[in-house]
Every structure is written in C-alpha cells, then in structure tokens.
C-alpha cells in the first residue's frame, strides 16, 4: 500500500471510530458550533450582497458529517442542499439530525472527496474542516472539479484551520494536515481560482488554530468587488458591513 492510500485509510478508520454527535464531528469542541455558524452566516450574507451574488437554488455540503452545516446554515438559505459524506453512520444520523428540514435535502453522495465528481451545478459549494484530509495533488484536482460544477455566479467556500507557523503541521491522530495561508493561496492558483473574499473567524477560544474563510470563483470570472480589488477582510464584523 502506498503512502497516499495509507493516509486515506487511516483517516477513514479514524472517522469510523468517532461517534455521530456534534461533539464527535467537532473533535470535542462542540461548544464552538454556535459561534462558528454565526460567523459563517455573516460570511454567506456578505456573498449574497455582492453585485453578482450566487443564486440560492442549490448548495453542496462537502464532508457533511451529521449535517451540522446543512441544518444550521445551508438548508435555511437554499432551496435544495446535496451532501457528500463517506462514513455510513454519519449518513444514517444525518436525516435524523436535520429533522424537519429533510424535505429540502437533495442527493446524498456516499463518497470520499478525492473521488467525488459533481454531476450537477451548484450555487455554493461549502467545504469546512475537511480539506486537510486531502493530499495536495488531490485537493487541486478536487477544487478544479468543484470549479467546473459552479453555476454562472457560483462560489466555492472554504473554511479551514490555518497554521500560523508558516509550515504544514501534521496530525497523526486523524491523518490530516493544517496548511499555512501561503500554501492555500498556491493551491487556489494551481486550481485557477481567485479569492473574492477572505475573513478570519472571530470569538473562538484561545489555544486553537486560526480559522479562515475564503470565497473562490474561477480565475477568468468577471467579479466587481469593492474598490476593484480582492476584499481581504480581517474580521467577521467587517464582512457584514
């Protein structure tokens, strides 16, 4: 078995051992869920305030887990939400957790992101706390496939831990990596994606990684952000203005 296969096998085994609970999918940090969702709501609101905002017909929740982001963020804002999740027990619990909003739940893809190839177009493709499990070449390929699955004004959102050390930091427990900001930017460039918004999540407890949100569109997409340049916004409150 090569290193790539071994990395993905270990990650699958780790998540297979994690309970299908809020605390489980957040690695013991379930108490930050409300703060996290509040930040994401403001970021999504900022995207919907663009001069050419994404539609609100279809969204995709990638690495959905028990459906936390689907239930609390995407389903209230989109007509239909599809989900991608490789772990069977999370999928089984997803519809229970989503509850009354299940009627707006669309396709459920039991698939790892490195193998996922969207078969329809999406207005927003949301990736959160999952891309650290993809090795770089697979992440670039995955982002290219997501780019090709966007509607006319569609946007890819990435919300991930960012290493302040300036280097890749490995976690042997779940076989993931935390990338520095510079590497994220290099990956976006390789996938021919450009940032139109960037925010740092606020109000998280001390001692955990900084968390950044990126809104990405195809590099050749004509976007008209404020002042004709990428909006590098440092706080969630700034995003809401």
What is this structure's SSE topology?
Blueprint: H1 3-16, H2 22-25, H3 33-48, E1 58-62, H4 68-74, E2 80-84, H5 88-98, E3 105-109, E4 122-128, H6 136-148, E5 150-161, E6 169-171, E7 176-178, H7 181-190, E8 193-200, E9 211-218, E10 231-232, H8 236-240
Parallel strand pairs: 1-2, 1-4, 2-3, 4-5, 8-10
Antiparallel strand pairs: 5-9, 6-7, 8-9
Report on the structure:
The chain has 241 residues and is an alpha/beta fold. It has one domain (3-240): Rossmann fold, CATH 3.40.50.150. The protein is built from 8 helices and 10 strands. The chain has helices spanning 3-16, 22-25, 33-48, 68-74, 88-98, 136-148, 181-190, 236-240, and strands at 58-62, 80-84, 105-109, 122-128, 150-161, 169-171, 176-178, 193-200, 211-218, 231-232. The strands form 2 sheets. It has an 8-stranded mixed β-sheet, with helices on both faces. Strand 4 (122-128), helix 6 (136-148) and strand 5 form a beta-alpha-beta unit. The chain is globular.
Q: Enumerate the spans where pLDDT stays under 50 for 5 or more consecutive residues.
A: 226-241
Q: Between the first and last Cα atoms, what is the distance in angstroms?
A: 51 Å
Query: What is the CATH topology assignment?
Result: Rossmann fold
> What count of helical segments does DSSP give?
8
- The CATH C-level class name: Alpha Beta
Strand content: 15-25%
| Class derived from helix and strand content | alpha/beta
CATH architecture name: 3-Layer(aba) Sandwich
Q: Compute the average pLDDT.
A: 92
Fraction of residues in H or I helices = 25-40%
Strand order of the largest sheet: 3-2-1-4-5-9-8-10
| Gross morphology | globular
Q: Give me the oligomer status.
A: single chain
**Rg, Cα atoms, Å:** 17 Å
Taking the sheet with the most strands, its summary is: 8 strands, mixed
